[in-house]
Amino acid sequence: MRVLVAAMPFAGHAAPMAALAGELTARGHEVVAYTGRRYAGRFTAVGASWQPWERAPDFDDTDLRATFPQVGDGRGLRAVAVNLEHVFLRTGAGQARDIEAAGPVDLLVSDQLAIGCGLVAERRGTPWASVSLVPLSMPSADLPPFGTGLLPGRGRIGRARDAALRALVARTLVRRIDAVLTAVRAELDLPPARSSALDAFASPQLVLAHGVPELEHPRSDLPPQVHFVGQLAPPPAGREPPSWWPELLADGRPLVHVTQGTYDVDPRDLLLPALRGLAGAGVVVAAATGSGSLPADAVPANARQAELLPYDVLLPRTSVVVTNGGWGGVLAALAAGVPLVVAGGTLDKPEIARRVARSGAGVDLRTGRPAPRRVADAVAEVLADPGYRDRARVVAASLARHGGAVAAVDLVERLVREGGPVPRADADPWGVGGAAATGRS
Hints:
With about 450 residues, the chain is α/β, with parallel strands linked by helices. Helix content is about 40%, strand content about 15%. The chain contains 15 helices and 13 strands. The protein has helices at about 10-25, 40-45, 75-90, 90-100, 115-125, 155-185, 245-250, 270-280, 310-315, 325-335, 350-360, 370-385, 385-400, 405-420, 435, and strands at about 1-5, 30-35, 50, 105-110, 130, 205-210, 225-230, 255-260, 285-290, 305, 320-325, 340, 360-365. The strands form two sheets. It has a seven-stranded parallel beta sheet, with helices on both faces. It is globular.
């Protein structure tokens, strides 16, 4: 089978999609990876060939504004809509033409935000599976709009609030991106969509949700083609730990890992406040800077820094992860049973922080720019209360049980074999009934 796997050129998107591509090639399928130049090597390393971004503008995810100057600081619902419009939707026609240039394929598997696959699937009638690489953003009658960072309302007043917000977003932001999608579709000689642009990101045949029900707000109207598949984790990169690693292992204090991932990497947001707050907290700190290094006088005596750290070595020895909430890093920590302190401030990160707190596996600081004392207090809380680690281990067991890339490829093979939508066996993944799960009376 010839499969095209599409990943938006972001580090957090390329890694899980490369895990899927690797499982497909391991089963003997021919895989063409459509992604940006920066991440082509992730896919060729697992046996895929590479189809570059050419008609769609390739970009550097560490300097998004260089290609998309309209993108702001990523804070708030309007920023989410701007990103959707300029980075994901307006590149859609170019993506579709690039994908079609790769030649005929038997199956399309896309990062849900790589909208070109859905457009090609419609034009060619090719089976299509989408992968939700962030928490589920599908609209629901049980939830506030994705991007607001709000927990589901409780009781009659809370449900009324959520309904009012859904109506407001539909009249404003959704209407705007619907118009953009109509224009993109016209470029490809496709008629206007019959549903919202928000629906265009998810396949009507099969959606693979990168995560587990324990990290999602329960909803009674989850579409039947959505399947949770746990963590889509690539194999360890084989990176050696830094030279200072044995020093931290020899120290008897709890190890705290601080990271801002690969996006939103201004150290003034989280890294520097965390290091200041934890300097006298009775812990040792392993800080990942993402790129470059922090000034020596900003790194206290109980901390060490490196651009990147090998999670297969680091996480089994870590007591708490302090993060700005990138989904891939959150899942990696929880898969290792490590509780979290999350400072989510931009795009989907506040949504992720709320879900971590709801699961009981961590603390939500409710800001992307916490004060040093707030970080220290949250770490102390997690270290003092074994319930956080217990819940992290529950989530870890669920992530393993849902099967990861193996389960995901089983499902996409089933999609091709059966030639139609792939329904879930369990109508209610939360096992409690949609009404009860959302606080309905």
